[in-house]
Amino acid sequence: MDCMIAFDVGGTKTDAVLFDSTGRVLRRSVTPGANPLDVGFDEACRRYLHAIHTLLKDFENIHILSIYGGIACLEYFGNRVNEAIAAQVQADHIRTEPDGNCLISAMLGHTDGACMICGTGSSLCYRQGESYGHIGGWGYLVDSCASGFILGKKALLAVAREQDGRGEKTLLTQLIAQQCGESMEAHFEKIYAGGRPYIASFARLVFEARRAGDRVAAQIFDECVADLNELVWTAYRRFGGGYPLVLNGGIFQHFPEYVQAVKAHAPQQVQIIDSDAPPVYGGAVEAMYDAGMTCDAAFKQRFLEGYNQA
Fold it and tell me: How far apart are CA 159 and CA 176, in angstroms?
């Protein structure tokens, strides 16, 4: 049986799918995130291979036409992931790229365009011909502007500033204590132990406090929107004009006011598209491309139906 594998890797989860050329989903696997900057290269590769082997378990006489992986922060690791997978899995084609290409392909197909991811991390990725790159997204220790991690970090800092007397009172203090089940200060050990994904879990409180009229939360919101639009305008200059921009990621999906604010400040010539497909579907599009096939409407419908049921 001929089949393909697509996987999408972020800071929170690794989403992997085994499927055939008609779009039929044979198996789906969801495992913890495996951004190599978060967990280290060796552990990340172990998690990719675990996801692939989980998909293939108990299937016999499978011929893998292609494996495509969209992986957050892969651009800093060269071709090493491809080599690690090829050493343990047989496939006609293996290709791994930064995760932004999955989002572009999910909505635009294998063509030029850009996407902006805003989930635990954030960045704007662009593709022109067979070249691609990113603006922002230099890892959370350096640059992960306006992401869930940054929103959560700014919320925690606002509470710390209020407690110190450096900053004004904010509803975030109460909301964070409610989420933690204790004061932020009493919860500090758990915050540090939880790391980046846990800090990102506080991002939703910025939106909640802003809706309630909190001035500090509104300021955080506005600062982050400005940072996102800096990415959009930088890409506008790189493309030399308008371009299609796909938006995806958990923060964009769950907080439409964030999306509307970005749209309001973007160049009019930029066509902003809200994604209606999971990133791993874009990985399937690319896996099909590597196998010399294209995805029509029937393929997409069948894939998404199987994906949602898996």
Answer: 8
Phi-psi region of 32 (alpha: psi -120 to 50; beta: other; left: phi over 0): beta
| Closest C-alpha among 72, 123, 98 to residue 230 | 123
The string of pLDDT tens digits covering residues 214-246 is 999 999 999 999 999 999 999 999 999 999 999
pTM, two decimal places: 0.80
Listed in order, strand segments (DSSP E) in the chain are: 2-9, 13-19, 25-32, 63-71, 93-98, 113-118, 122-128, 131-135, 244-248, 271-274
Residue whose C-alpha is closest to residue 104's, from 289, 302, 310, 263: 289
93-98 vs 244-248, strand pairing mode:
unpaired
Tell me the average pLDDT of the chain.
93
- Dist CA 71 CA 62 (whole Å): 25
- The pLDDT assigned to 22 comes to 97
**Contact by Cβ (8 Å): 179, 202:** yes
H or E element: which one contains 215? helix 215-239
Dihedrals phi, psi of 267, to nearest 5 degrees: -60, 140
Strand (E) or helix (H) holding 161? helix 148-164
Among 172, 107, 180, 98, smallest CA distance to 131 is for 98
Instruction: Report the alpha-carbon distance of residue 131 to residue 242 in Å, rounded.
Output: 18
Does residue 10 carry a pLDDT above 90? no
SS3 157: helix
